[in-house]
Write a structure and sequence with these properties.
The structure holds 2 protein chains of 2 kinds. By secondary structure, chain A is of the alpha+beta class. Chain A is 24% helix and 31% strand. Chain A is elongated, with a radius of gyration of 17 Å. Chain B is built from 2 helices and 5 strands; from the N terminus they run βααββββ. Classes of the chains: A alpha+beta, B mainly beta.
């Protein structure tokens, strides 16, 4: 079973519960820059962002991936995350509200360990999938 | 504006030094707080969030580009186990591939970086693959 869904036997096609994140703020981007060591100024300085043709700062792609990492920990527990692979599809800006969503693609058993292959994504308030990916978690 | 020359395929195989990173409890907490990650083990600083290896920053000799013109296209991590406070991780990153493609933004260079982290005895902890797009 999955930590976030102890009541349910998950199998191929099962929908996973949503994790809605608080709105992204410029302060969060500054904090994330410091915490991650990604000091690319297109994420924290509007002038730099505009100089490369953006309207203003955009979120680090890795922030949306971090949301999906949290999602997996919430779904399965931090000891159970085996893989997370994402593609960054759309830009994320301050004020955007991302929700992590997913579904079970496959349920497999390897060496007595049951694994779920998941399709996961982060979508914005316009239901656009900004970051899409695949993941693998162990379940007990 | 002067355009820097596209990255050369000669860079393929070039790698960083092996760098030892210590996973600090405070760094885990700071990362979790920035992400507003509610995982209790991460907020306490015990277990690092899955994308924490992004904090392990290394340079590859000869690989330079304009940061403002880089797009992060894709990222993958595979884990043998989570990173915990106190872990000492030996990391290295290498250029796995460089290729040019023409896309909707014109000529673009794709840079694939492969990273790995082991414990001090050499047992693997995680691997990472980064796809960077230079326009």
């Amino acid at each position: 079973m999955l930590a976030a869904r102890p009541d349910e036997e998950l199998d191929r096609g099962s929908a996973l519960p949503d994790l809605r994140k608080p709105p992204i703020t410029k302060l969060q981007l500054v904090k994330y820059a410091g915490a991650s060591g990604d000091y690319n100024l297109i994420h924290t300085d509007d002038e730099t962002a505009r100089s490369v043709g953006l309207e203003g700062v955009i979120a680090h792609g890795m922030l949306s991936m971090a949301f999906l990492g949290e999602y997996l920990c919430w779904l399965a527990g931090p000891e159970s995350v085996r893989r997370l692979s994402v593609r960054f599809k759309e830009m994320v800006r301050p004020g955007d509200v991302l929700t992590c969503r997913g579904r079970v693609k496959e349920r497999t058993t390897r060496d007595a360990v049951v694994q779920l292959q998941l399709e996961v994504w982060a979508e914005n308030q316009r239901a656009e999938r900004v970051t899409i990916g695949e993941a693998e978690v162990d379940i007990t | 504006m002067d355009q820097p020359p596209p990255l050369s395929r000669d860079l393929i195989g070039r790698e960083s030094e092996v760098v030892l990173f210590e996973v600090e409890r405070g760094a885990i907490r700071k990362f979790a707080e920035a992400v507003q990650d509610q995982t209790p083990q991460s907020l306490r600083g015990d277990i690092a969030p899955p994308t924490f290896p992004t904090t392990f920053r290394m340079t590859i000799p000869g690989l330079t580009f304009d940061l403002a013109r880089v797009l992060h296209g894709a990222q993958e991590y595979r884990y043998e186990r989570p990173l915990r406070a106190g872990d000492r991780v030996r990391c290295r990153v290498r250029v796995a591939d460089v290729y040019q493609r023409t896309g909707r933004l014109g000529e673009m260079t794709f840079l694939i970086l492969a990273m790995d982290g082991t414990d001090e005895s050499g047992s693997p902890i995680f691997t990472g693959t980064t796809t960077a797009i230079l326009r």
